[in-house]
Amino acid sequence: MLHHLTIQNYALIDELSISFSDGLSIITGETGSGKSILLGALGLVLGNRADLSSLKESDSKCIIEADFDLSSYALKDFFEENDLDYEEKTIIRREILPSGKSRAFVNDSPVVLSVLSELKSKLVDIHSQHQTLQLSDTLFQFSVIDAIAKNDKRVASYKRGLKKYNSLVKELRLLKENQEQENQQYEYNLHLFKELEEADLKENEQEDLEAKLDVLNNVEDIKTSLSEALQITINEEVGVQNLLYSLEHALEKISTFSKEYEDLHSRVSSIKIELDDIAVELEKSNENVEFNPNELEIVNERLQLIYSLQKKHQVATLEELLQIHEQLAEKVEGVENASEVIDKKQQEVNEVAVKLDEVASLITTERSKAIPKLTKELEFLLAELGMPNARFSIEISPSESYLSNGKDELAFLFSANKGGNFGELKKVASGGELSRIMLSIKKILSENSKLPTIIFDEIDTGVSGEVSNKIATIMEQMSKYMQVIAITHLPQIASKGKSHFKVFKEDKNGKTASNLKLLSTDERVAEIAEMLSGKEISESALIHAKELLN
């Protein structure tokens, strides 16, 4: 519900502050007094595009602020999804700077216009004679039927199920597409996999083979060097081993004389032990080194196989080949097990489809029950609004497809004249007829669902007499369930308001400005009397005005 609207430096308004009540609020005023400016300001604060023409004084910024009571609307999720602070008393502010830049805030948090526009549809419904295109929208027509049918929870459940169903169908489609692609590559991948499988590659194998090849290719040099080293170590006359024995024996003689000599003897003994181990290793290595052409050939062939596979797969290391081996194994196994995975996914799709069909069937059943009631109420209201021959033909038929709100196709047809053919609303109904149909639908919706604040913008144009009384009654009845604001030029409607505002122009310091005031009871009598008889208010007009207000 709109509680308060503050406007500064907008169009013809210097500064204006309006508090609205629940029920039916009336706004009247002469043509050109600025009634449309109020709607423009409200549209601006709720996300409409703005430019510098919005500024009354071009060197000052325009500020429009609207206070809403959100306690009756389930908007917490919307605020969380858009990272906004939720408050039951929410303040929306819009600023247009002299530079032309625009800023918007919800509870002092900056917000982009797209979010603000989405929020607008949940807070305010501005209804004019020209805004009846919605009537031809099938989703809107379904929303009317579902409101009567109390289908809100069922449709919400269906939409959740449909989201899951569509997600599973997409996953199934991708699985099938991947299977088809993988099937085309299967034989080639299987060949590559078997080739690597047969190669039986081991970690670090390439490094070990290259080291072994290096040894085999240099056997003679290695043999010579090992023999020479062994001779230097174990020669009986000049070998290092023999010299160390002599050194150890010499130091052993004096090791008991001091700690220093004892340490020297110990260190030499350690070196001698290490050298003895080295000598043993040199003998083993020397014995083991021999030229083996068969082994050289085997190592060469193995390395050539590895090099060939690396070149084929365009990699530089054995580790990369092993990774490719694993990947190929997954691809081959994936194709071989794909049918099982696809069957399982298809089963999931089928299970969700069954549940979705059950919910859709319940929605259809309730819609079928609601349509006669909706048809009856619409035809009754339109008869009250001067269309006694208006008839509706509303039928639903089953659809094989899962639609956004169920599995029903809708034919929402209308005939304005007795014996006339039924046709689509936009083709057979005039602008005035569409306006009355929309008013009737909004009246029905107000009693069956929680609607946002509705603003009727002179929808009574071209209407008079008893029809205007009926429009006024409908607006009054709607205001029992929701906040209704009516901009009108008809005294019959103006008299029904819980509160009554008048828009007027006044000259200040040589400049024209629009203003608005809440009328007292006496002022309302005078305003309605003026609407009845013009500027020259007659005594009979005053009496009639009082009668209307009573």
Main attributes?
single chain; 550 residues; alpha/beta; Rossmann fold; six-stranded antiparallel beta sheet; six-stranded mixed beta sheet; 19% strand; elongated
Summarize the structure.
The protein is of the alpha/beta class. It has helices spanning 35-45, 76-81, 113-123, 138-149, 152-199, 205-216, 219-234, 240-254, 259-288, 293-312, 318-384, 425-428, 431-448, 465-478, 491-494, 521-533, 539-549; strands at 2-10, 13-19, 24-29, 62-69, 89-96, 102-106, 109-110, 124-128, 391-403, 406-415, 423-424, 453-457, 484-487, 499-508, 511-518. It is built from 17 helices and 15 strands.
Rg for CA atoms: 46 Å
CATH architecture group name of the domain at 1-129 and 447-519? 3-Layer(aba) Sandwich
Could you tell me the mean pLDDT?
A: 88
Shape: elongated
**Sheet with most strands:** 6 strands, antiparallel
Please state how the strands of the largest beta sheet are arranged side by side. 2-1-4-5-6-7
List how many beta strands DSSP finds: 15
CATH fold-level topology of the domain at 1-129 and 447-519: Rossmann fold
Keywords: ATP-binding, Coiled coil, DNA damage, DNA repair, Nucleotide-binding
Family: Belongs to the RecN family.
Protein name: DNA repair protein RecN
GO molecular function, one term: ATP binding
